[in-house]
């Protein structure tokens, strides 16, 4: 274990033998860090926090601090971070609250740039990219392969579906469906993330089906219920890529951007 002599590791912390911890970092008693993870200098990891394998956590991050929620009363809620994540400088991830599932969760293979804030009870999937200063309020859900542009801010309880993308300085106040690109304050839809889908191996036919679903939502003048019914019928015909829309419509809580 390569722990700098100035680092402070509380009794009870569970640190894998090959974890590296830099100068002046502080690791709390209820923290678990799995093998291959590197923690840079001046990092504070506290609370009931579990960090998986092969993560890189850069200097001045604060992970596992109590939520910025006046209702929090010291409950043993958690922060869970998966494997192979890069977390750059000055990021702040808070633990969950008893009013939700009690866990703030980050999946695997995420690229999280400097000054990103994840508030209590956020759920972040896999393979996401959060550019500098992206900010999630409490209870936000982010699907796999989402890209948040720099300075994107997301209102509490919003959901952003898989493969969606936001532009620089977007203010997201409602749910962003899968595959959709959004921009502006307040964020509005601006097409599908076709280039990203090509890079991830989606076929031309799949992208065409997704584009047609987007037209049902935003170009045909349909009500949301009418568009939902049309997309659900298309998904039932074997267009599996549209299943993400159907699942998203069943869980969205703040209404989709229109």
What is the topology?
Elements: E1 2-3, E2 8-9, E3 14-15, E4 20-21, E5 26-27, E6 31-33, E7 38-39, E8 44-45, E9 48-51, E10 56-57, E11 62-65, E12 78-81, E13 86-87, E14 92-94, E15 103-106, E16 111-112, E17 117-118, E18 123-124, E19 129-130, E20 135-136, E21 141-142, E22 147-148, E23 153-154, E24 159-160, E25 165-166, E26 171-172, E27 180-183, E28 188-192, H1 194-199, H2 204-218, H3 224-236, H4 243-251
Parallel strand pairs: 1-4, 2-5, 3-6, 4-7, 5-8, 6-9, 7-10, 8-11, 9-12, 10-13, 11-14, 12-15, 13-16, 14-17, 15-18, 16-19, 17-20, 18-21, 19-22, 20-23, 21-24, 22-25, 23-26, 25-27
Antiparallel strand pairs: 27-28
Helix pairs in contact: 3-4
Poorly predicted spans: none
Q: Helix coverage percent of residues?
A: 10-25%
The total strand number stands at: 28
Q: Give the overall form.
A: elongated
What's the alpha carbon Rg, rounded to whole Å?
A: 20 Å
The rounded distance between the terminal residues' Cα atoms is 52 Å
Q: What proportion strand?
A: 25-35%
Mean pLDDT: 97
Strand order of the largest sheet: 1-4-7-10-13-16-19-22-25-27-28
- Main beta-sheet annotation: 11 strands, mixed
Structural class: alpha/beta
